[in-house]
Fold this sequence. Notes:
The chain is of the alpha/beta class. The chain is globular, with a radius of gyration of 16 Å.
Amino acid sequence: MAKREKLQKTNAMRELDRAGLAYTVHTYEVDESDLSGTHVASVLGQDPDCVFKTLVTATPEGGHVVCCIPVAEELDLKRAAAAAGEKSLSMLHVRDLLATTGYVRGGCSPVGMKKRFPTLIDETAQLFDTIMISGGRRGVQIEITPDDLGTYCAATFADICRSTDASV
């Protein structure tokens, strides 16, 4: 019988362990040609509405706000700025992601960043018993309750996705 390879803990897992929070790790084979969250949800057999991607934004003053939204959705920067109490937000350039957060594209988690940033989680997370977020490395997802994630990150739950309703 082959010995199962032990998964090396990420910063996100170590921080959740220290906080005493329960989570489940899910791993998948990374497809470098498709790092999209919808692909991850599909590979893991999960509803894309409960798999959340982590986006990092910049404030006009040089600060940052972390936003977690369902993988198939788009961030509404105006709604996110209002929820964060900022005049405006812009997406952090991918080249600045590693230096700012300690994470790479496709492996950015709201837990375990180099520094704690104000965090917003789309309010739809509260519709699920558990959601999935990046585990801090490509190929690793963490399943956690929205309340535990929100409490740990001192996050605000808000409507931060673009409306798909043409009348809005």
